[in-house]
Amino acid sequence: MKFGLKEYFKPTPKRIRMFGDSLAAAGTFGASIVILNGEPKVGTIIMVIAVLGKFISNFFSDEISSN
Hints:
Blueprint: E1 2-3, H1 14-36, H2 40-57, E2 60-61
Antiparallel strand pairs: 1-2
Helix pairs in contact: 1-2
């Protein structure tokens, strides 16, 4: 597995992609609940962390040797 800026547009490994998607879904759900309970600042922080986690997961790619 590789991590770097050049890896962004390459296919992401399935487990990393699933983790990023799960993080985004849980963050969105959690932030919505927190915002509805009257804490918009905390909800915004949770949402930003979830989006950043999903974005960072795209920087992983499978290690493929090119000969």
